[in-house]
Amino acid sequence: MHNYEICCVGHLTLDKIVTPKETVYMSGGASFYFSHAVSKLNSDYILVAGLAESELQAVEDLRAKGIKVDVMLCKNSVYFENTYGENQDNRTQRVLAKADPFVMAAMNNIQANYFHIGALLADDFSNEFVEELSKRGKISIDCQGYLREVRGDKVYPVDWADKLEVLKFVDVLKANEMEMKVLTGTSDVYKAARLLNSWGVKEVLLTLGSMGSVLYDGENFTMIPAFKAEVVDATGCGDTYMAGYLYKRAKGESMEEAARFAAAMATIKIEAFGPFTGTEEDVQTAMEKREISIPTEDILASLEI
């Protein structure tokens, strides 16, 4: 039985990305962006992907890039339409098709140091699935997908109904400031982080856009500044961040070093359409030479305490 450093589990999607400048059709999903990012790093990695048989070319494309992929066939692939305004933080989504939830049979005998749950919609993963997977390795979740409910073809923000049942099995959780408020009921970063930790999350990552990110390990808070960037395409930035973070954590780096690496990796990704195409050397250069977006002391002064 092989023990991977990282395993991502999630659906591959069909994506239509609409911006004020152009419309692009491509494969997507958290697992897509995460896998491309990890493939540029020296990681022992596997993806377990859910998609329709008609879309298997997307898997072959990933395999052609050297990414190991296991497949769970679904009746349909997830089909997202993402429309962005001039501000890339503002996105309107429609879901034109949904896929089947993941089942443990799709995981075969895979073991990993970290399992990253690439949820796109609230019902992609059952509570039992996460619990069973936690017996094989540490669990990482970007909560974004758990806060999306589909009604018709529209996506609505909702609280995570079963968060207390799932978060007790979660080692790493990422949330942006809007998701943080939905999950915890507070916009106070410090209170929110402590609450998430009290629910079981060991490593809380709260991303604040151009203000950087705040880490909490149950004892200490750490502020990680963002780097200056020319925003071109924000789709997949959070997935790229998580790929960088888990890569460094799996290699034994501290939360702070992992988050600095993740921030630089996301900066490179946001400056081009599509997934991350840089190298680890590019990320290291960005960490050394890029200017930070906002000074740390200014960020700390602006946060609610």
UniProtKB/TrEMBL annotation:
Keywords assigned: Kinase, Transferase
Q: Which GO terms describe its cellular component?
A: cytosol
Q: Which Pfam families match?
A: PfkB
**Keyword check for Kinase:** yes
Molecular-function GO terms, alphabetical: kinase activity
Domain Carbohydrate kinase PfkB: residue ranges:
20-277
- Output this protein's name: Ribokinase
Q: Which organism is it from?
A: Dysgonomonas capnocytophagoides
